[in-house]
């Protein structure tokens, strides 16, 4: 029972931490020509990963809450933990995919230097760890009894 509580709290903390993704820094493209000489200067863009992460965090929190409230039964908690797992895995995939594309040069623009969002890998790791905890909860709740 104690392990179930630890996993639930850890997954919940990971989901709440995803709320900080929009303030973690954005991908920036800096022009070779400054604005004063007719260039465009710099461009900052979120690329969507840092808005997907908090939304997935909300879905994960709701799933974990449903699982906690319906805990004596099996179907509700397993479904809630599965929803949380999918949401957190989606946030991890969005953050990691953006980082991978930016770091590999897939997001490069002609005449610009790309600086990837600095915190994307950290948020990908946070979301992946939360997804792992939620998955272990779901698997533990599949068997009747005390759970994970």
Automatic annotation (TrEMBL):
Residue intervals passing through the bilayer: 49-70, 77-99, 119-142
Keyword annotations of the record: Membrane, Transmembrane, Transmembrane helix
Transmembrane listed as a keyword: yes
Superkingdom to which the source organism belongs: Bacteria
Name of the protein described by the UniProt record: Tryptophan-associated membrane protein
Native source species: uncultured Thermomicrobiales bacterium
């Amino acid at each position: 029972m104690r392990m179930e509580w630890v996993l639930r709290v850890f997954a919940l903390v990971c989901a709440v931490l995803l709320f900080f993704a929009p303030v973690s820094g954005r991908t920036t493209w800096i022009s070779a020509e400054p604005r004063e000489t007719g260039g465009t200067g710099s461009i900052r863009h979120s690329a969507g990963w840092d808005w997907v992460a908090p939304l997935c965090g909300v879905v994960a929190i709701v799933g974990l809450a449903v699982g906690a409230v319906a805990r004596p039964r099996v179907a509700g908690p397993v479904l809630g933990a599965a929803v949380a797992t999918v949401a957190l895995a989606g946030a991890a995939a969005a953050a990691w995919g953006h980082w991978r594309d930016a770091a590999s040069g897939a997001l490069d623009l002609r005449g610009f230097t790309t600086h990837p969002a600095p915190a994307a890998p950290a948020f990908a790791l946070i979301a992946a760890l939360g997804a792992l905890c939620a998955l272990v909860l779901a698997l533990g709740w599949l068997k009747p009894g005390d759970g994970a």
